[in-house]
Design the sequence.
C-alpha cells in the first residue's frame, strides 16, 4: 500500500490512499486552524477505533446490539519524556449486554491489528528523492 502525503495549505498535511483522504491540521497555537485533528491525535485514535471494529464484529457475529456499548480510551504521559507511556481502552457495556460475553468481548478487542503493531513495531525509515 502506498500513501501520498501533501500540503493543501496552512498547517494542513493530508494523507491520500485507496480513494480516501485523511486530513490533519494544527491548532492555532501551531499555526493551523483546527480544521481537522492533529496527526498525533489521528494516530492515537487508531487504537480505539481498531479495537472498536473488533468489538463491533464480535457483537454482530452473535446478534448482540451495540446500543449503549462504547469504548473509552485514555492515555498516560511520561512527564520526563512527554511521550505516551500507557494507553487504556475500557469497553463500557450496558446492563443489557450478555454477562457471559463480557470477558470474551475484551479478548476480541485485544486482537486489534493496531495493538499488535504496537507490540511488534515496524522499522520506520525516512529518506528523500528529488523529482526528475
Sequence:
Amino acid at each position: 500500500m502506498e500513501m501520498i502525503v501533501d500540503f493543501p495549505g496552512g498547517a494542513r498535511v493530508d494523507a491520500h490512499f485507496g480513494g480516501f483522504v485523511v486530513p490533519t491540521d494544527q491548532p492555532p497555537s501551531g499555526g493551523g486552524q483546527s480544521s481537522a485533528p492533529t496527526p498525533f491525535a489521528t494516530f492515537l485514535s487508531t487504537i480505539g477505533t481498531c479495537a472498536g471494529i473488533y468489538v463491533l464484529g464480535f457483537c454482530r457475529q452473535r446478534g448482540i446490539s451495540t446500543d449503549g456499548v462504547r469504548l473509552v480510551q485514555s492515555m498516560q504521559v511520561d512527564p520526563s519524556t512527554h511521550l505516551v507511556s500507557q494507553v487504556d481502552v475500557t469497553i463500557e457495556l450496558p446492563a443489557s449486554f450478555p454477562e457471559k460475553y463480557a470477558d470474551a468481548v475484551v479478548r476480541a478487542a485485544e486482537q486489534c491489528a493496531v495493538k499488535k503493531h504496537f507490540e511488534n513495531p515496524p522499522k520506520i525509515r525516512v529518506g528523500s528523492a528529488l523529482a526528475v
Observations:
- The chain has two domains: 1-36, 38-119.
- The beta strands are 4-9, 12-17, 20-22, 70-77, 84-92.
- The radius of gyration is 18 Å.
